């Protein structure tokens, strides 16, 4: 009986260890050497950029059934898909990014429209960038796609921008600043709360901002005591993550939640090194990003919800897989994580998922 109990206990420990182990999947390339993932939706479809066999870099869309497929460009040698929405009962998923145009004269925001790229570039702008996408209904209750990012106006000033695409109609508005000259949007919720970074009055600092759904005013989130910061992502509960300067002028990851923490944002710390950055947050509050260890190496990390304990994602995989995970850029509500790292010494996009589910 004692031996049976010991065997059962050992089996339980083994299964528990396996349940917590993760495997990093190399998402491949488009024929060239390197790739990087930028975002993942709740159906495990992934966006990013990858080198091609023609020595160009193209946006890609990856899914578990067909693997990586190139999305092309707007005529130039570089494109990247930066965000992907999750499909809903009334809207399919949507993918956005930006691309250089023929002759590499400028960079244009795009929305993937079937098998082609819809150029969202505003007339008279120098450059434009799409970084977040959601779907829903516009003010006229038409099905629409909402794209957040920025454009560089004719004076060369970057401004946060919101596009609304409904059928063949495209409208766009600038989102303003925090009193300074420039701004840029990076993240958006399904309800269209928007986050990013903006110059403050006096143009001597850039601070993370938050725009609550249904309003237009930019709210200054502040920093971690230093001069500058940027908000990269926001989840459905209006928890905002990004990076900001500390009083020691070191850049650290932060989290801030509307109506809970207010000011200041919470410093998420590092792995013993100087810097960290939070890049994405799931609905349950799990945060992913990157942090330096005590030797200054970049390591992909996550912060658990509630405790906000930092975890090196490399500690959750078998070293025999050949990976050094450097930055986690996206997480979906099923806990799957994407990013970029060194796989056998080469920069590759990864999908981190449970090995035994």
Q: Which helices and strands appear, and what pairs or packs with what?
A:
Layout: H1 2-20, E1 22-26, E2 31-40, E3 46-52, E4 57-63, E5 67-72, E6 75-84, E7 95-101, E8 107-113, E9 116-119, E10 127-137, E11 143-152, E12 158-166, E13 169-174, E14 179-188, E15 194-200, E16 206-211, E17 219-220, E18 225-234, E19 239-246, E20 251-257, E21 266-267, E22 272-281, E23 287-293, E24 298-303, E25 310-312, E26 323-331, E27 337-343, E28 346-354
Antiparallel strand pairs: 1-28, 2-3, 3-4, 4-5, 6-7, 7-8, 8-9, 10-11, 11-12, 12-13, 14-15, 15-16, 16-17, 18-19, 19-20, 20-21, 22-23, 23-24, 24-25, 26-27, 27-28
What can you tell me about this protein's structure?
The protein is mainly beta. It is built from one helix and 28 strands. The chain has one helix spanning 2-20, and strands spanning 22-26, 31-40, 46-52, 57-63, 67-72, 75-84, 95-101, 107-113, 116-119, 127-137, 143-152, 158-166, 169-174, 179-188, 194-200, 206-211, 219-220, 225-234, 239-246, 251-257, 266-267, 272-281, 287-293, 298-303, 310-312, 323-331, 337-343, 346-354. The strands form seven sheets. It has a four-stranded antiparallel β-sheet with strand order 1-28-27-26. The longest helix is centred in the first third of the chain and has 19 residues, at 2-20. It is globular, with a radius of gyration of 21 Å. It starts with a helix and ends with a strand. Mean pLDDT is 92; it is low at 1-20.
The structural class is mainly beta
Output the number of helix runs: 1
Name the overall outline.
globular
> How many β-strand stretches?
28
Strand content: over 45%
What is the element string, with H for helices and E for strands? HEEEEEEEEEEEEEEEEEEEEEEEEEEEE
Uncertain runs are: 1-20
């Amino acid at each position: 009986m004692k031996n049976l109990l010991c065997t059962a206990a050992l089996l339980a420990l083994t299964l528990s260890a396996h349940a917590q182990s993760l495997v990093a999947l190399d998402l491949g390339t488009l024929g060239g050497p390197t790739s990087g993932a930028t975002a993942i939706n709740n159906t495990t479809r992934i966006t990013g950029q990858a080198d091609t066999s023609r020595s160009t870099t193209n946006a890609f869309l990856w899914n578990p059934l067909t693997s990586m497929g190139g999305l092309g460009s707007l005529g130039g040698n570089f494109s990247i898909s930066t965000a992907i929405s999750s499909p809903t009962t009334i809207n399919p998923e949507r993918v956005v990014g930006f691309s250089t145009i023929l002759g590499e004269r400028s960079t244009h925001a795009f929305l993937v429209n079937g098998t082609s790229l819809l150029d969202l570039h505003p007339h008279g702008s120098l450059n434009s960038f799409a970084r977040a996408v959601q779907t829903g209904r516009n003010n006229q209750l038409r099905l629409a796609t909402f794209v957040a990012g920025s454009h560089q106006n004719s004076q060369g000033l970057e401004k946060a921008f919101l596009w609304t695409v409904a059928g063949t109609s495209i409208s766009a508005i600038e989102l303003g600043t925090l009193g300074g000259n420039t701004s840029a949007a990076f993240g958006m919720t399904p309800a269209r709360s928007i986050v990013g970074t903006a110059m403050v009055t006096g143009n001597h600092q850039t601070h993370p901002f938050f725009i609550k759904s249904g309003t237009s005013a930019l709210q200054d989130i502040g920093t971690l005591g230093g001069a500058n910061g940027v908000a990269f992502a926001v989840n459905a509960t209006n928890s905002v993550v990004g990076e900001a300067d500390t009083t020691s002028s070191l850049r650290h990851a932060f989290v801030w939640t509307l109506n809970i923490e207010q000011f200041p944002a919470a410093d998420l710390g590092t792995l013993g090194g100087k810097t960290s950055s939070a890049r994405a947050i799931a609905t349950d509050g799990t945060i992913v990003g990157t942090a330096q260890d005590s030797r200054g190496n970049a390591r992909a990390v996550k912060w658990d919800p509630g405790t906000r304990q930092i975890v090196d994602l490399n500690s959750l995989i078998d070293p025999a897989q050949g990976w050094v995970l450097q930055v986690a850029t996206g997480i979906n509500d099923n806990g799957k994580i994407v990013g970029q790292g060194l796989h056998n010494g080469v920069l590759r996009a990864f999908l981190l998922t449970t090995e035994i589910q």
